[in-house]
Design goal:
The protein is an alpha+beta fold and 308 residues long. The protein contains six helices and 16 strands. Strands 11, 12, 13, 14, 15 and 16 form a six-stranded mixed β-sheet that branches. Strands 4-1-6-5 form a four-stranded mixed β-sheet, with helices on one face. It has a three-stranded antiparallel β-sheet with strand order 3-2-7.
Length: 308
């Protein structure tokens, strides 16, 4: 029977953030009163933020006193929720944070963040990026008005409220039902780095249909038994990565018809296991990504099928 499996752990960015307190977004008076004791996460134009080390080699997003940055609630701030102690949390956009070991982005430090902080960072980066996009190329007098503590805008051109959009994208681990997995690489990636086929869902398309189309378009392989694994926000700028695995035939020819893919090949589980441990010529996606968790889960399933 073909190998089947599920994720061995939740992707880092999928673990729920602190209380989003959505009911407060329309309570302007309560939010204004809470600013004096609130905490802010500053995010710069390169999507970088500061984090501090805590026990066990983990890191915690640096939440600074809001009153140290502004006497009153700034229009540009976006409400993220509440701490466990009930303090309000805001994301505050800045032009540039200092080049410092404490400052990084989700790719560089996301895997080290304590539980929930990855989701908090994803939320902040996605919202700030969305607001940045809504004003790009417009004169200031034509900027939309922010509402709902940054979770909505009223656009002077279109009228009515608008809300942040999330673009669904699929990512699929293609395997042969046994020990081999099909990985591909983009030409812009570092030498030796491979990952799963991924792509955006088109209008009127199901997630499973997108998996089949993207794999066939990018590497020429027809897949079967498409199964859902899990999902993860990827705020660059506003994607939701939806993970699947599917069965493909290693004997089928690999045809690279998509210019985004420069190489694709089948790899044995031993090669992937070594890559996950940082050994060998193969390099895989970083630990912060769902792609990494998918590979770890597949390797664990293969190992379990051998020893079970």
């Amino acid at each position: 029977m073909p190998l089947d499996f599920s994720l061995v752990s939740d992707p880092v960015l999928s673990v729920a953030a602190p209380d989003r307190a959505a009911s407060l977004r329309q309570d302007a008076e309560a939010l204004a009163r809470g600013w004096d004791t609130a905490r802010v996460m500053r995010v710069d134009r390169r999507n970088r933020f500061a984090s501090d080390p805590v026990a066990g080699g983990r890191r915690h997003i640096r939440l600074e006193r809001a009153a140290d940055h502004a006497e009153e609630l700034p229009e540009a701030a976006v409400f993220l929720g509440r701490t466990d102690g009930g303090l309000h949390i805001w994301a505050l956009p800045v032009d540039e944070l200092p080049d410092d070991p404490a400052v990084g982005n989700l790719r560089s430090c996301g895997a080290d963040l304590v539980e929930g902080d990855g989701s908090l960072a994803s939320q902040a980066i996605a919202l700030i990026g969305w607001h940045r996009d809504t004003v790009r190329g417009r004169d200031r007098q034509h900027h939309p008005r922010r509402v709902d503590a940054g979770w909505g805008i009223e656009d002077p051109f279109h009228g009515g409220p608008e809300y942040p959009r999330t673009d669904p994208a699929v990512i699929c681990l293609v395997h042969d039902g046994g020990r081999r997995v099909l990985l591909a690489r983009q030409p812009v990636w570092p030498a030796g780095m491979y990952s799963h086929v991924a792509g955006f869902v088109e209008a009127g398309e199901s997630l499973e249909g997108c998996v089949r189309r993207e794999v066939e378009e990018e590497v020429g392989v027809v897949v079967d038994r498409v199964r859902y694994l899990g999902s993860q926000p990827w705020p660059f700028p506003r994607s939701l990565m939806v993970g699947f695995h599917a069965i493909g035939d290693p004997a089928a020819p690999i045809v690279l018809e998509d210019e985004e893919i420069s190489e694709a090949a089948w790899f044995d589980v031993d090669e992937v296991r070594a890559a996950l441990a940082g050994r060998g010529p193969l390099t895989v996606a970083p630990q912060v990504s769902i792609a990494h968790v998918m590979l770890r889960s597949w390797v664990a399933a293969v190992d379990g099928s051998v020893t079970g």
